[in-house]
């Protein structure tokens, strides 16, 4: 029995199943992290109330100026109310850096009646809404259908003014569902430099 003990000990220590150095191969994994930094320093100002021109119900009927306009049609003229969104005190950086500035306008409360049309939160009519266009640049853009992005903007303390226009938008057929009275849309404005 004396001769077998060292042999048994040697056998146990050299067994590959019980060896101290066992390697386990783990799968490799790549992780991508995306982050956006936001400068929360701009003051955004816009008129608290923007009044559209008085509009007769007949302008929504066949032959009326508002009858055939789609939410992407911008023609200028007296059916629009221009207004500005002004940014001030955006210069928190020590050096001027060109950034992308994004203006986002959103419907508060009920969602759009149809794509591109702010709903009437007073619910005076289901066939009339309000459209808003950004009029900076070569062509006007509906703020609900197009991203309002300005590239190569400098976050500055100087006043930056962006131009918009609003009008009524017919969403139904004929004059039915169009009632006289007050219409209103509640809109939130967010400005972010990226």
From TrEMBL:
SUPFAM superfamilies per record: Bacterial adhesins
Domain of life: Bacteria
BP terms from Gene Ontology: cell adhesion
Keywords: Signal
Signal peptide location: 1-19
GO CC list: pilus
Protein name: Fimbrial protein
Organism field: Citrobacter freundii
Lineage: Bacteria, Pseudomonadati, Pseudomonadota, Gammaproteobacteria, Enterobacterales
């Amino acid at each position: 029995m004396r001769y077998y003990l060292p042999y048994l000990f040697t056998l146990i220590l050299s067994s590959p199943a019980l060896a101290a150095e066992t390697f386990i191969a783990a799968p490799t994994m790549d992780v991508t992290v995306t982050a956006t930094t936001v400068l929360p320093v701009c003051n955004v100002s816009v008129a608290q109330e923007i009044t559209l021109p008085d509009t007769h119900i007949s302008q929504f009927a066949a032959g009326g100026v508002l009858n055939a306009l789609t939410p992407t049609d911008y023609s200028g003229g007296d059916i629009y109310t221009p207004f500005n969104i002004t940014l001030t005190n955006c210069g928190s950086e020590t050096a001027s850096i060109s950034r992308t500035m994004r203006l986002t306008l959103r419907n508060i409360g009920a969602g759009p009646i149809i794509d591109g049309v702010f709903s009437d939160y007073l619910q005076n009519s289901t066939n009339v809404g309000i459209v808003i266009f950004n009029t900076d640049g070569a062509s006007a853009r509906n703020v609900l259908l197009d991203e309002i992005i300005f590239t190569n903007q400098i976050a500055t303390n100087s006043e930056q003014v962006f131009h918009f226009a609003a009008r009524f938008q017919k969403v139904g057929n004929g004059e039915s569902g169009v009632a006289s009275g007050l219409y209103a849309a509640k809109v939130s404005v967010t400005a972010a430099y990226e």
